[in-house]
Amino acid sequence: SLFGCRIPHEVLSDDSRVIAQASDLVLVASGTMSLEVAFFEKPMLVLYRASALKRLLFNNLISVTPFFALPNILGASLTGGEPIVLERLCKGNEAEELAPIASGLLEEGPARDASIDHLRRLKEKVFAPGATARAAEALLEFIKKRKLSSDAVPR
Q: What is the pTM (predicted TM-score) of this model?
């Protein structure tokens, strides 16, 4: 299975950057590879295998963001909080659901065009010089907001 999702696939072990650049659509596990794929402006589905307990914990208890895919976390401000790439915590039976989505991203059309446009905007924002300073500023702003919201809660 592919990241816990039963989808027919071929695993390539060459340089991932070369493969991503040559691809029209990439199925990727969450992590730094999703950022590499975003850098190349390639439509993607971010799939992560998760047990029912892990999905419950992520969705309801421990998440500080509605996203786990780095392109979505970093680009949420570009889309008003909407995801840039499709992400899925997989149980293993998602192939039927994901096939038409993948097809829409693979074929020329509005879904693919929108995906590439979102990735291009993400690349301009995130991969521009000064990214470390912007990341630090974003982290400090996030901590400040969390502190303010936790201070507002009566004890």
A: 0.73
